[in-house]
Amino acid sequence: MTFKPLRKAVFPVGGLGTRFLPATKALPKEMLPIVDRPLIQYAVDEAIEAGIEQMIFVTGRGKSAIEDHFDIAYELETTMAQRGKSLDLLHQTRLKPGAVAYVRQQEPMGLGHAVWCARDIVGDEPFAVLLADDFMVGGAGRPGCLKQMVDAYNRTGGNLICAQEVPDDQTHMYGIITPGARDGALTEVKGLVEKPAAGTAPSNLSVIGRYILQPEVMRVLEGQEKGAGGEIQLTDAMARMIGDQPFHGVTFAGRRFDCGDKAGFIQANLALALGRDDIGPAVRDFARAALANEA
Ligand code: UTP
Q1: Stretch (H or E) spanning 190
Q2: What percent of the chain has pLDDT above 70?
């Protein structure tokens, strides 16, 4: 089997973000910052690092801040230029003209439905899916998560998902993999189940929010019924692709923070803040003092 190279990435940002209300009432969850950059910016930078040429955002109502973030901010740039301030940080958020497309998911019917909404822009090509609230940090000297997956894709082709071990008491919150043969960071995917009931998970290996998928998944999603939680699930569609094409999980060398969850979001902010030269020392002193007071 030959597979086309990966050029496109889909960013589903149509979710409601109810776990972060009221912060996400008027602000998209993906615009919440980790220190000084919004989650979606980290995801886009990760895609660029992995060689992605076209970014496809699946948005919903109230998500226009994301479009503005990747656009030119004329007033801000003009005023800052007049005041002699550097525009570098603003220019980092611009995407190449024509390298970004937006499609609207009118109703948040689930991740599978969001991905399916991008079918015409994806066309007959493989594509990546990045969930910005799964915040992946490659760490010093290591490539980002999608780049690690693209390196694996260039060897295996087919479909790949990012995989991570989770504790037994969390398997009901994730898509779970039935694992086959393992080869280093690669695990053959023999089966997939979305949010299995407690005690029924086939393993502890969960699906994390990075995917490389072949375009055939769009045809599966076309006729897809609602699954767990009454939503159209990407996991269910992927499960139906197993056996037709190679399918692997890639264990990511790095750290993952679930930023759709409040504790994960705070942990990500703390981890990145501590690693920064500018604010790290002040945050470390504060954290030490706060923990000492608690003890
Ligand atoms: P989540 O399960 O985190 O749902 O979606 P959510 O609505 O964003 O947040 P909560 O649970 O209400 O707090 C996982 C990813 O799938 C996208 C979300 O934007 C997020 O990146 N998504 C989900 C869509 O784009 N559309 C949907 O209909 C559902």
Answers
A1: strand 186-194
A2: 100
